[in-house]
Amino acid sequence: MKLQFQASLRLLLLASSLTLSLAGCLAAQNSTAPPSSTATPTPPPAATVPAISYSAVHVGGPYIAMTFDDGPSEKLTPELLDLLAKHHIRATFFVIGKNVVEHPGILQRAVREGHEIGNHSWSHPAFGKMSDGRVRAELQKTDDAIRAAIGTGPVIMRPPYGSITARQKKWINAEFGYRTILWDVDPLDWKRPGPSVVTSRIVKETRPGSIILSHDIHAGTIKAMPETFDRLEAKGFKFVTVSELIAMGKPMTPRETGSEGPTPLSSPGVSPVVMPPLTPTPAPTTP
Questions:
Q1: Where does residue 120 rank: exposed (0-12), middle (13-18), buried (19+ CB within 10 A)?
Q2: pLDDT, tens digit (0-9, with 9 covering 90-100), for 10-62
Q3: Do the beta carbons of residue 287 and residue 186 sit within 8 Å?
Q4: Which has more pLDDT, 88 or 284?
Q5: pLDDT per residue over 228-253, tens digit each?
Q6: CB 162: neighbour CB atoms within 10 A?
Q7: Do 224 and 199 contact (CB within 8 A), yes or no?
Q8: Residue 72, preceding bond cis, omega within 30 degrees?
Q9: Count of C-beta atoms within a 10 Å radius of residue 118
Q10: Strands (DSSP E) along 219-262, which ranges?
Q11: Is 172 helix (H, G, I), strand (E, B) or coil?
Q12: CA separation for the pair 146, 166 (Å, rounded)
């Protein structure tokens, strides 16, 4: 009897050991099993593609950019720089290459005082009607002139008359690194409507993120600026350069069709700008 009992006890212990080993294997197998095929993986965040063209910028504060085209003018641009310094305003100048060569010192002063310089072509033609080779030459000559004057090249460009195609924007950005800068506020100051009209139009149309078009080659525009600056400041606007404004840009919630407000901000095609007649003049007189 004693031998039978010992044999039965050994069999019982062996069975228990086998049961525990099997349970351990099953537990290990379950712990390494892949997740259920019904689980939805988290997609990677979508890459943000920087815009290459702007007519305004969606910002979170009262920031705007004043821009002045077609200079530098030997007499008027220094007057404007005095006004900007008095108001502690930084602006952006889109310059004509031929004028840069004639007045490099004015450009140097503008940069010393914190203003931004952009390329506005060599001779103010309509890019949208030109071959790529001619557009490239206009931009390159002006880029070279700006670099010779101030030691660095521009990172932004404004096409004369706002005339440019979507395809041109792409290759210009690829070759020169330029962003194309248009505008959402145009006082039509090149038509010389008078300083008070220029001021009224700018103040009425400006909103946060606006890029304001004007020209530092017209005396009436310069005369309009003191009141323009005063009234914009009174409305709480703060002035920055175009590149500073772009750097402040925030994602924009899509609006419903028909809603009011500025168009955002990448301008995909030819700007809907009214082009003035191309009449010969001693200096450029158009946007």
A1: buried
A2: 554 455 554 544 444 444 444 444 444 445 555 544 445 679 999 999 999 99
A3: yes
A4: 88
A5: 999 999 999 999 999 999 999 987 55
A6: 24
A7: yes
A8: yes
A9: 24
A10: 238-239
A11: helix
A12: 25
Q: Which residues are catalytic?
A: 69, 215
**Does residue 219 contact residue 76 with C-beta atoms inside 8 Å?**
yes
Fold of 60-247: TIM Barrel (3.20.20)
HSE toward the beta carbon, residue 166, CA cutoff 13 A: 5
pLDDT band of 274, cuts 50, 70, 90: very low
Q: Which two tokens stand for residue 84?
A: 């900007």
In the chain, where do the E strands start and end? 53-54, 63-69, 92-95, 116-119, 156-157, 179-181, 211-215, 238-239
Q: Report the 10 Å Cβ neighbour count for 238.
A: 12
Could you state, in order of their start, the residue ranges of all structural domains in the chain?
A: 60-247
DSSP-derived secondary structure for 186-217: ---GGG---HHHHHHHHHHH--TTBEEEEETT
Length of the chain: 287
- Choose between 265 and 35: higher pLDDT: 35
Provide the 3-class DSSP secondary structure of residue 94.
strand
Return d(Cα 168, Cα 180) in angstroms, integer: 10
From its phi and psi, is residue 285 left (phi > 0), alpha (psi between -120 and 50) or beta? alpha
Tell me the pLDDT tens digit for each residue of 74-98.
999 999 999 999 999 999 999 999 9
Q: What is the mean pLDDT of residues 175-202?
A: 98
Extract the tokens encoding 161. Answer: 């008359």
| pLDDT for position 50 | 79
